[in-house]
Amino acid sequence: MFVWTISKSILNLLYSTSTTTTTTTTTTTTTTTTSTITTSSTTATTTTTLTTTILLLRLLRLLLLRLLLLLLLLPLLLLLLLLLLRLLLLLLRLLRLLLLLLLLLLLLLLLLLLLLQLLLLLLLLLLLLLLLLLLHHHHHHHHHSQ
């Protein structure tokens, strides 16, 4: 409760100071503006026409400059586009090459796998043969001992 009252008082103080400052600034600005308006009212018409013409001329110059730039840039842009297209075509060719390479690699891998499988099969066959031989030999030996 105590904290609340303190904060409220601080806020009130802040609010009061801000309002006073704003009122003083507004009054000063209004006085200055009124004085300037009265002095410039006579010359206002001529200056406005001059300023508008100057602005128009500036705008026209800017437009002309922009047009010139565009004219200069258009061929450059076209060239860039052509280059990009060429690059794209090259990239496509490269991609095709890459795809071919990938296919080749895949084929090689398949071949390797097949070879491995063959090797494994051969090994298995050899093992089986060995086992058979051993069994046969053992059996034969056993038979002989009786």
Automatic annotation (TrEMBL):
Q: Does the keyword Transmembrane apply?
A: yes
Which UniProt keyword terms apply here? Membrane, Transmembrane, Transmembrane helix
**Top-level taxonomic group:** Eukaryota
Transmembrane annotation, as ranges: 63-85, 94-112, 118-135
Official protein name in the record: ABC transmembrane type-1 domain-containing protein
**Source organism per UniProt:** Dreissena polymorpha (Zebra mussel)
